[in-house]
Amino acid sequence: MSRRWIVLAIGAVTAAASWAEAQTPFNAGTEATSTPAEAASIGGTPTIDMITLDGASLGVPLRFAGIVAGSERVELDGRKLVRGVDYRIDHAAGVLYLGFEARAGSRLIAAYRHDKALATTAQKGLAGAGAFSFQLVPGGLNMVVGLGMTERTGDGNVLSSNIFGWNNSFSFGAGKLSGLFLVGDRQRVQAQSLYEYEKPQDNVDVGRSQFLVQEAAANLGGGSVSASYQDISKNFTGFSAVEGAGYDAKLVQQFQKERGLKRFGMGLSQVGLGDLKLSSSFKTVGEGSESIDWRSLNVAAGAFSAEYSSQRVGSGFTRFKDLAEEDRGQLAKERGMSRERMAFLYKPKGVELSFSDSRIGDGNEKSIANRDFSLKSGAFALSTGTQSVDEGFSRIGSLLGPEQQRLAREVGASRSWTSLEWGAIPGLKEPLKYTRKSLVKGESSFESTDVRLAGSNWTFESTKMGSDDGFVGMGAMQDAERAEYVKSAAGLYAPNLQYKPDDVQRFLQGAGIDRSGTRLSLTPSKSTSFSLSETRVGSSTGGAKLQQASLSVGALGLSFRKQTMDDGFSDLSRLMQFERMQWGTLQGLDRTDWAAGGKFGGSQFSFTSLTASAPSGDASHQALKVSSGPFELEAHQRDVDASFSDVRQLLDPDKDNLFALRGYKERDVRASWAILPNLKLNAFLQDGKAIDSDEEKYLRDFRLSWTPDANSQVGFNDFSQRDDDPLRLLFGNNTQLLTLTRKFGSLGTFRYARETKDYDGELTDLPDSKREYVAVETKLDPKTTLLSEQTNTTFENGGKESVSTNTVSTEISKRVGVSISDVQVERNGEQPDETKRNYGMWLDFGRGIRLSYGYIRNLADEQAGTQQQQLQITPGTVGGITVGQGQYVEQRWDGLRTKSQGGVQVSASKPFSLGQLAINTMKFGFDSAADRGTWLKEDKSFQLQGNLFKNTFGVEYRGRMHPSGIRAIDRLFTFATDQSETQKVRATLAYKVRTLPDDENIMIRNFNIVAKPFKDFEVSHQLLTNPEVAKGDALLGTITQASQVSAWKLDYKRSKDFTIGAEWKEIMDPKRPLLRTAGINLGLFGSSGSPLYLYYGLEQADLNADTRRTTHRYHLRFDQKPGPNQMFSFFIGNVSYQHSIIDGQPRSNWTLRLDYQLRF
Fold first, then answer.
1. DSSP code of 928?
2. 345-366 residue pLDDT tens
3. Residue 31 CA: distances (Å) to CA of 26, 40, 461, 533
């Protein structure tokens, strides 16, 4: 039976069904054999179709739907056909049905008018007879048939499709099988236009196609078993029939995306085999030989359970966007990768045992492996595990976000850990805790161990951590892990010792340093505690040990500290800051400290002792402090070797005194006694003796203060000092001072002082003297103060000096004030008299900024007068402007010399905007000095940086003057566009003009421009002229090189399997006027792991003014993908010279290299 008769037979069967669609081709005898011409409707667009019939189609689709009724004229092989007799037409669908069998190859010409508004289109772009179904097995099997279905595409193709299949839903016992199976036959209608221009038609998929979706499920062993299969041909288009079969529209849309993909899945869920529960699944989706596979297996039997899961994404699979899986984006990232995980859990009563093993492979035989084992039984808990990231693992960026953050640092590193807790040990209040961790990278490692035990009134802690010399894996530690190690290291010295964020960075730089510590703490009672600890730190250069003990009983406390350090331990500078605050910075220091203190009723005492020994000398210091009511006593004893020059590096508050007393043994006592509430006595006594000689020193200082009433105060001071040796007095001094102060209310304040000084000894020629001082201070008004002072001094040698000072100061406002002083100095004999005038003014701007001006004028008899001016501003911020410390000081000797110095720094305190212009930084600085009319220094600087839209710009100015008077200036202009990789053009431009002392200008340019005119193409250009080289003694800190570099580069990266690039560079400098290089490189098969590279380069260089050399370079390099036990690479290259060959040098030079490694 011919294909035509098969189609007609099926059509007859379907037409007989009562639920068939209403559009039947003919009226089957209800219409006359001839029909009068129907008046055509007005409107529509005229066209003429020529269609070549295939002799098997049920209907003849026209090129357009929405036929204007009565407008058509139809001819077949030149014979005019009559509607209702020879054919019938579906105007809305644009399909013509012949009433007879036409031979294949016949040509049908149809002239008609069409209107889009009249067209009706079936679902999914199909029109025509449509698809329908009828029940073969009620409720179990429905026949689905679609004949003569028409599809018109946007490019002008007209397609006719026939669909056959069934929709099944069978139930059998505890199982069910449901799904849809369709077979489609899609053919192109050979239709062309004889009226208007028709653009070329695209190729479309025709021929047979299928849609197969089946799901099966059944109850089994108290659980269920299921299977699913999906196979939708890539050219299948009958989705209107799929939706008509009852599938959801969204699901049908997903079916359309997955055309060409095959899915298969099967699984078991909680299937019981006695006490055993089994769950398993397998799912795959793929196209051709490439697929994504998922597998899982779960077994549970009583207290035991085990599971396995895996995921593998084929390296050639590309249709991730079409998948229904929610994580399709992540699957696309993991193309070519695999994941596997295996775990088991054994959990009988009171016990929990678990193990897991997971791996992530990158497809290039590199992986991430993780294993965990844990055991819990009552109060016992053990956990151990390992993790490794192979060196060369290249797919970190393809992992999940949290995995990336955790593993990006750990490429090439492996770690292991063990943690133990045991709480069933008699006598322990807390569980025994043991932790061990290690981090390995390369051939070296970092390891740490912690142990803690705690009883009801005691604790024991031990910590050890360190790494091998040259360990490069410190940066692989996680942030929390780094902080944990630093906190643990701080705990070696004292519980809860604080550290700073900078210490974390210093810890990462401490490769090769070992740390360990042990601490025992006892608390026998609430008022008694004891602590004993030992801390060690060391490296390959040596080490140090710290032993500490403390005892506290009620209000009494005792502590001991002993530090020993190897002389060669040179890694102190690499320790963390809080560690250096414990050890100090003095290499080879041995030190012992004692401390005691307590309270007895209303009295308290403290005692400290320090003994230090360093390679350069020894020092000791003992201190005692006692206080009881109105009496306080403080005593010190110090002993410092004269050679101990670095004693100031000791971590001790008394280090400055120890430095000053080098070479001496010293004792001092300081006492304070409040004899009466208004009568106080202070005393200071000091004795010292030189260690290497018999020189002795002593000092006595007594101060008595008496306050008879609120307005009166009397003071007396007796100060004595002696320096002598057994044979002579070197220096002696005794000073007595009596002071009296009396306030007279609104009349003012009166002050009187009487001082006597006596000098003796071979090292001084100062005369004895007596001084009397009288001062009266009064307020002229609430804002104006007058101060008058008179000082008279008589000397043992007959000299006299009288000083009269008068000062007026006033506050003009809350922010402005001035002061004026006149000083007259009169001397007898040949000593000159002096006249001084001091003028001052201040202006307060608020927020810490205060401007002050001072003027001092000094006139001396028959000597040049002096003058000093000072303008000063204090730092602060006001109105968005930050002012740094600034001042200007000028000193002048009349007719002889003028000296000045000044400087200021001003900057914007925060960024600000002017429309789209954002200013991030604005600074100005000035610093100068001059003497005798000559500039000693003059530095000027200005800096401005900001953003305009996404572009950044900068302007900088810097000028410097040498003491010789020469000046140099730099002016820099910078500009940079948005540097995001997605930008079509990226540029960074730096242009500097340097003005030299001889007014010569040098242009320094550094331009970098990158453009992406097309996809996968990148063009870059670099221009560098007169580059700078650092030179410390240069006026501006750098000098320029008279050279220029111009380079162009072109790269095309279609994929890892094909990259090509070209570059050209020209270098000019005075030593070699011309050097040009050019090259082209090609990379192939990059994604295979075995890339192939080819390169050709050309170089031209001037050897001298008359000689130029041309050099050709080319090579081929192949690197085979490393295997588990072998590695191979191959290189062959040539360097040849075209002309100007040096005598004895070969013209052509070949290089051949083979590298092969075999592991066994």
1. E
2. 999 988 999 999 999 999 999 9
3. 8, 20, 107, 115
